[in-house]
C-alpha cells in the first residue's frame, strides 16, 4: 500500500474543488494550491448536465446549486428569421437519471458553494493565493515548489500531484507536454446582458442554438441574465467587433429597435480542440481543461472535467485504501482520455460545425433531421443520452486494461 500523505491538487476551479471533496468523502486528504486569492467571477461555463448534478448530489451540494439555477427541461435549435425549431424534451431520459434537466447557473456559483464546503472539511487544506513555481518527480513522491501569499517559498512533497489548473496549465508547461489539436479560426464574443430576450422572442427555451441569415448565435439564459455568443462580421477586427456600438448592432439583429441591451460584460475568446495523449505521467495526473480543451458548444467542458475528477478519485481510492499498485492510474487515463477523444471533443466539434455551417440547404436538411429526432421518443432519448453525457460515462465504465 502506498504511503498515505495529502494529495496535492493544483487549481481551485470546479475540477480541483470537486475532486478534493470526493477524495475527502472517500477518506483521503488533499492540499489545494490556487494562485488566485479569491474565487474568479468572470464568465465561464454555465450548463450542468444530469450526471454532474448526480455527483454533486452525492457530495451534498446539488440542492443549493439547483435552488439558485434554472432547471431547463427543454432546449432547442432554431431559425432566427422564421422561428422554426427543433425542441428536445429532457423527459425522454427521466428513466435514466434522477435529474432529467440541464441546470443553467454560472460556474462561479458552484465554486462558491464548493469552496465553502472545502473550507469546513478537515481533510482539505485550501491554500488561496499560492503560486506553483516548479515540480520534480522522485521515486516515491512529487516535490512541489510553491510561493505563498506572503511571498515565502515553500516545498511540499506529495505521493500524487493532480493538475487541475485549466487550459493554460502551468503543470503541463513545466513538464513540457505536447497538447495536440487545433485552434479554430474564428473568435467567439460572449456578451452577458440583463435584456429579457424571452419577453421579445416567442418560444425561447433557456438554451437556444440559432441559425440566421447573417450568421449564427446562441442564447443561454441564467438567473437574471442572458448570455449571447456572437461572432465578428466578415472584415471586422476583434477590437471593432467588441465595441459597444458593434455589440449593440449585433444584438439589434436579434431583437430590432432596442437602444439599451443592458450589456454587463463582453469577453472575446478563441476556441480550442486539444487533448493530451495520456493523462498520467508518473505521479502527475491531469484532469479537466489541463488534459483536454473543446468547443463550449453543448456545455461539455466543465462537466467532462468534473467527471475526470470523479473517476480519478475512485482510482486513487483503489490505490491508497484498496492496496492496488500505482499502475492503477492507467485505468483512469484509458477511461477518460478515450471519452475525451471519442465523446467530448467529437460531439463538441460536431455541435460547433453544425452551427457554423452557412449553407442554406444544409441548414434546412439538418433542421428537418433534428425535428424528426426530437419528435420520436426513442431517437430523442438516444440523442439526449449522448448530449447529456450519460452515454459517455456509462461507456467509460466498460474500459479496462
Short synopsis of the structure:
By secondary structure, this protein is an alpha+beta fold.
Give a description of the structure.
The chain has 401 residues and is an alpha+beta fold. The chain has a domain at 7-72 and 98-180 and 273-357: 3-Layer(bba) Sandwich (FAD/NAD(P)-binding domain), CATH 3.50.50.60. It contains twelve helices and 20 strands. It has helices at 14-25, 50-58, 62-68, 107-119, 170-174, 238-241, 244-254, 301-320, 329-356, 360-375, 377-387, 390-396, and strands at residues 7-10, 30-34, 47-48, 70-72, 74-79, 85-89, 102-104, 124-128, 131-137, 142-147, 153-158, 161-163, 180-193, 207-212, 215-222, 225-230, 263-275, 280-281, 284-286, 292-293. β15 (215-222) and β16 (225-230) form a beta hairpin. α9 packs antiparallel against α12. The longest helix is centred in the last third of the chain and has 28 residues, at 329-356. The two termini are 21 Å apart.
List the keywords:
single chain, 401 residues, alpha+beta, FAD/NAD(P)-binding domain, 8-stranded mixed beta sheet, 36% helix, globular
Amino acid at each position: 500500500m502506498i504511503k498515505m500523505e495529502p494529495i496535492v491538487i493544483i487549481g481551485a476551479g470546479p475540477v480541483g474543488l470537486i475532486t478534493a471533496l470526493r477524495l475527502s468523502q472517500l477518506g483521503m486528504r488533499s492540499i489545494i494550491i490556487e494562485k488566485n486569492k479569491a474565487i474568479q467571477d468572470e464568465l465561464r461555463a454555465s450548463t450542468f448536465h444530469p450526471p454532474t448534478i448526480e455527483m454533486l448530489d452525492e457530495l451534498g451540494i446539488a440542492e443549493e446549486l439547483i435552488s439558485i439555477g434554472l432547471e431547463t427541461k427543454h432546449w432547442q435549435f432554431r431559425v432566427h428569421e422564421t422561428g422554426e425549431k427543433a425542441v428536445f424534451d429532457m423527459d425522454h431520459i427521466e428513466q435514466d437519471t434522477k435529474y432529467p434537466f440541464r441546470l443553467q447557473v454560472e460556474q462561479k456559483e458552484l465554486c462558491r458553494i464548493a469552496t465553502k464546503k472545502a473550507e469546513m472539511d478537515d481533510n482539505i487544506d485550501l491554500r488561496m493565493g499560492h503560486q506553483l513555481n516548479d515540480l520534480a518527480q522522485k521515486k516515491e513522491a512529487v516535490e512541489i515548489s510553491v510561493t505563498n501569499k506572503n511571498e515565502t517559498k515553500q516545498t511540499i512533497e506529495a505521493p500524487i500531484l493532480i493538475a487541475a489548473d485549466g487550459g493554460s496549465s502551468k503543470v503541463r508547461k513545466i513538464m513540457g507536454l505536447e497538447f495536440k489539436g487545433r485552434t479554430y479560426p474564428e473568435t467567439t464574443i460572449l456578451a452577458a446582458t440583463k435584456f429579457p430576450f424571452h419577453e421579445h422572442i416567442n418560444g425561447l427555451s433557456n438554451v437556444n442554438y440559432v441559425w440566421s441569415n447573417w450568421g449564427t448565435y446562441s442564447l443561454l439564459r441564467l438567473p437574471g441574465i442572458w448570455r449571447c455568443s456572437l461572432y465578428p462580421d466578415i472584415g471586422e477586427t476583434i477590437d471593432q467587433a467588441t465595441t459597444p456600438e458593434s455589440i449593440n448592432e449585433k444584438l439589434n439583429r436579434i431583437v430590432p429597435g432596442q437602444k439599451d441591451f443592458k450589456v454587463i460584460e463582453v469577453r472575446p475568446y478563441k476556441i480550442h480542440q486539444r487533448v493530451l495523449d495520456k493523462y498520467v505521467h508518473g505521479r502527475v495526473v491531469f484532469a479537466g481543461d489541463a488534459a483536454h480543451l473543446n468547443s463550449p458548444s453543448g456545455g461539455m467542458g466543465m462537466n467532462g472535467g468534473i467527471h475526470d475528477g470523479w473517476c480519478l478519485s475512485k482510482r486513487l481510492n483503489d490505490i491508497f485504501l484498496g492496496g492496488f499498485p500505482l499502475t492503477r492510474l492507467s485505468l483512469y487515463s484509458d477511461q477518460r482520455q478515450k471519452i475525451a477523444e471519442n465523446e467530448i471533443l467529437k460531439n463538441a466539434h460536431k455541435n460547433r460545425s453544425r452551427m457554423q455551417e452557412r449553407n442554406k440547404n444544409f441548414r434546412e436538411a439538418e433542421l428537418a433531421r433534428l425535428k424528426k429526432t426530437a419528435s420520436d421518443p426513442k431517437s430523442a432519448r438516444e440523442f439526449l443520452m449522448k448530449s447529456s453525457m450519460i452515454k459517455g460515462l456509462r461507456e467509460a465504465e466498460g474500459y479496462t486494461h
